[in-house]
């Protein structure tokens, strides 16, 4: 029996709707600081007069997302004792406090202190993400995984849209303090909406009392799953990070880059919903991943083509990166539906989080390295290297996927 045939108990529509709404709000909240790190920080660093090489410092803000597996089992255990809702409420309140603390450290005045505050905010939201992952896996494995991960991708991208392009626009109009107040306000609003919606807050009593990180070794296919998680996003992260100073050097200001980022992230969310979910439902987990990655790898050459042809029209940026976003959205939904159905029900937050950490570790390395590569080789060669890496990883992915076992399949452990 494949994971797509797993039995998922039917729930009243109101209860399921509450779970979906809560999941969306959680992922929006967690996407806000990630969007600031990935899609806003590089632009702000460059626009503040710092060098292209210093854009690599963006990788520091992603570090908590790469290493949250170290405390994932502790959060899983805490969710078993307190319930997921209480953990989410506590971390959401801390995120609001961290955002407000950034008011005192404008990026243009003290780059180091501002980066430290952004890293701390990301650490809090990464911790909440462990509880969110556990909540989703515990309730939505099987056929619900495709839609659950579409909600994850759409919610997270909405948060990144607000935290990246949205905050760039706010920064251009109201400065650092205005942008940070907007960030804190959105986080506080999400906390309030989660608190008012009671339907999702029921506890899952089947979770074990003690989850241990070393229990991951019970997955006989752990190495293959980690290899996928560690590699699939690196080329896209490298290109996405380098695009920010590239656009600045082409004369776009923070407002213009913010609007472009928002359009691309909307395209990514759309791709996840209209292309990713049907791929998972019609092709199954593995073939959907392969098809989604092939599309994303092909579209990743957009930046190289624009640089090589010296295309500078704004409509071309929106068109090329919009198509790339649609393809990446489909890939993300397929990949994370695969990992949701790979995670053990006994340790939902830990297993799913470890895979996310694999992705984020490669994001740290890719974001940290691409600035130096772009400085040394120039934009065109750096974009070409990333595009070529994506093509090679497609072959690696095709080799790994048959060796990954999903819940409900014979020999999955």
From TrEMBL:
Topological type in the membrane: Multi-pass membrane protein
Signal peptide annotation: none
Transmembrane segments: 20-42, 54-75, 87-107, 113-138, 150-170, 176-196, 222-248, 260-281, 288-309, 315-339, 360-378, 384-404
One GO CC term on file: membrane
InterPro entries for the chain: AmpG_permease/AT-1, MFS, MFS_trans_sf
GO molecular function annotations of the record: transmembrane transporter activity
Compartments in which it is found: Membrane
Keywords in alphabetical order: Membrane, Transmembrane, Transmembrane helix, Transport
Domain of life: Bacteria
Name by which UniProt lists this protein: MFS transporter
High-level lineage: Bacteria, Pseudomonadati, Pseudomonadota, Betaproteobacteria, Burkholderiales
């Amino acid at each position: 029996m494949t994971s797509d045939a797993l039995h998922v108990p039917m729930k009243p529509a109101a209860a399921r709707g509450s779970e979906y709404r809560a999941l969306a709000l959680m992922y929006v909240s967690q996407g806000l600081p990630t969007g600031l790190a990935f899609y806003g920080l590089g632009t702000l660093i460059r626009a503040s007069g710092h060098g292209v090489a210093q854009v690599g410092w963006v990788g520091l803000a992603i570090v908590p997302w790469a290493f949250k597996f170290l405390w994932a089992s502790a959060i899983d255990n805490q969710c078993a004792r307190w319930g997921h809702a209480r953990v989410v409420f506590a971390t959401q309140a801390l995120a609001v406090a961290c955002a407000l603390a950034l008011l005192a450290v404008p990026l243009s005045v003290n780059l180091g202190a501002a980066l430290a505050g952004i890293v701390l905010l990301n650490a809090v939201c990464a911790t909440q993400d462990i509880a969110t992952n556990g909540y989703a896996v515990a309730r939505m494995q099987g056929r619900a995984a495709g839609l659950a991960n579409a909600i994850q991708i759409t919610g997270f991208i909405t948060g990144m849209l607000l935290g990246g392009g949205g905050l760039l626009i706010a920064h251009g109009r109201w400065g650092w303090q205005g942008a940070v107040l907007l960030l804190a306000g959105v986080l506080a609003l999400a906390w309030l909406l989660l608190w008012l919606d009671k339907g999702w807050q029921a506890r899952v009593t089947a979770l074990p009392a003690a989850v241990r990180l070393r229990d991951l070794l019970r997955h006989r296919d752990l190495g293959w799953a980690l290899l996928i998680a560690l590699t699939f996003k690196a080329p896209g992260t490298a290109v996405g990070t380098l695009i920010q100073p590239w656009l600045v050097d082409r004369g776009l200001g923070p407002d213009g880059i913010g609007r472009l980022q928002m359009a691309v992230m909307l395209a990514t969310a759309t791709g996840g919903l209209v292309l990713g979910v049907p791929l998972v439902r019609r092709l199954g987990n593995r073939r959907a991943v392969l098809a989604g990655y092939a599309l994303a790898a092909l579209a990743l050459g957009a930046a190289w083509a624009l640089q090589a042809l010296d295309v500078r029209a704004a409509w071309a940026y929106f068109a090329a990166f919009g198509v790339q976003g649609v393809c990446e959205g489909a890939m993300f939904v397929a990949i994370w539906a695969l990992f949701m159905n790979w995670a053990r029900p006994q340790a939902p937050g830990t297993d799913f989080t470890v895979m996310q950490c694999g992705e984020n570790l490669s994001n740290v390395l890719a974001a940290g390295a691409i600035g130096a590569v772009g400085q040394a080789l120039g934009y065109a060669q750096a974009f070409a290297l990333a595009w070529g890496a994506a093509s090679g990883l497609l072959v690696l992915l095709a080799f790994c996927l048959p060796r990954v076992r999903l819940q409900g399949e014979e020999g999955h452990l």
